[in-house]
Design a protein that fits this description.
It contains four helices and seven strands. The N and C termini lie far apart (51 Å). It has 177 residues and is α+β, with helices and mostly antiparallel strands. Strands 1, 2, 3, 4, 5, 6 and 7 form a seven-stranded antiparallel sheet that branches. It has two domains: 55 residues; 94 residues, no CATH class.
Length: 177
């Protein structure tokens, strides 16, 4: 038996050549750990070992401490443009499965005004997904179309990069959608 290697020409969004996912420190986690430290310090001040206040402060400290450690360890994931280093915001639009080919044509042509004419998904009928990353200045964007194949969305095209006026058009479509 011989191994047959599968040629994959479409990359996942995690491997997007234009977007890098970075971890950012979670301020909620830091704030929770600070509350935990204060709760433990408060429980140490309470002199009566049978006091319900002491028990409450210890339990509060443990809860906030565990939550804070998890949030700090996980961090916040942010998308950053590899070309200009700006933070990108992720948008996802869901459409009916019959719209995959039209959606792919729209993205490849850059005519995003036509997106509003496509049938949006209602309920569990989402078979096509348009994933966009747009920066706050509307100067850079990436777009990729994915199709739902049981249990996950699989990309049907490589990510495309847009700059300049095209990004402003994409952003206006996001407001209308």
């Amino acid at each position: 038996m011989e191994n047959i290697e599968k040629d994959t020409t479409v990359s996942k969004f995690a491997e997007n050549p234009y977007v890098e996912m970075k971890k950012k420190l979670s301020m909620n986690g830091v704030f929770s750990m600070l509350i935990a430290i204060l709760a433990f310090a408060g429980s140490a001040i309470v002199a009566d070992p049978q006091s319900s206040l002491k028990l409450f402060l210890v339990v509060l400290g443990v809860c906030f401490g565990v939550y804070g450690l998890i949030k700090v360890a996980m961090g916040n994931k942010i998308a950053v443009s590899k070309t200009n280093g700006k933070v990108l915001k992720k948008h996802e639009l869901l459409f009916e499965s019959g719209e995959v080919s039209r959606l792919k044509q729209i993205v490849e042509s850059g005519n995003f005004q036509s997106v509003t004419s496509l049938h949006r998904a209602v309920g569990h009928k989402a078979g096509a997904k348009l994933t966009l990353f747009i920066d706050a200045d509307h100067t850079f964007a990436t777009a990729q179309v994915s199709e739902f194949i049981p249990f996950d969305y699989e990309p049907v095209m490589n990510p495309m990069c847009f700059e300049g006026e095209a990004v402003k058009e994409i952003a206006s479509v996001m407001v209308a959608a």
